[in-house]
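Example: Meiotic nuclear division protein 1 homolog.
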Amino acid sequence: SRKGVSAAEKRTRLLDYFHETLTFHKLQELEKSVPKEKGIVQQAVKDVLQSLVDDGLVTVEKIGTSNFYWSFPSAVQQAKNAQLQNLEAELNRIESTNAALESKIQEAAGGREDSTHRQEMLKELQEAEARDAQYQTELKQYSDNDPSLIEAQKKYSQIAKEATNRWTENIFTFQSYCVDKFMVDRQEFNRNFNIPEDLDTLP
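Written out as structure tokens, the predicted fold is:
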């Protein structure tokens, strides 16, 4: 059986249709022409179109009683650039947060014994890593069809990977410190701080 068209491919095909025609369209017109021209089933056109509108890639304006849709390549590039700038700003903020948390963990590894404080730091680390993963996913969505954005994705993925590995090494350092200085059982340490047994650096 023939494999269905993915949601991402449908978005790309519909956006291509706008850029090839370079004119305004009503939904009814799109539902008639797009299935034939781009292989998107009629029932899916409306949902795909709305997703592009929601992401700012297609513009809609009501004129009289009808909605007219259009998209030009220059406007799409501006929308992608704006989204990329927002993601870069958020990644920079996360990097700053990670640096501050890393400094706190290093201080804790120097002899602080406030376990509640250390647990809070580990929780903040997990939340920062989750946010980082979320923004990496969003960055990939906007870079699927743009070589320059793909390079940016690779760059920030590497930054995120290195930051995550630094955090993991800091946790191992702190763990070893407590085991050696306070004779704490390593497995008991992991249970107290909710550290998974298979925690390891990323290859």
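The helical segments are 7-21, 27-38, 42-54, 73-109, 115-143, 147-182, 186-192.
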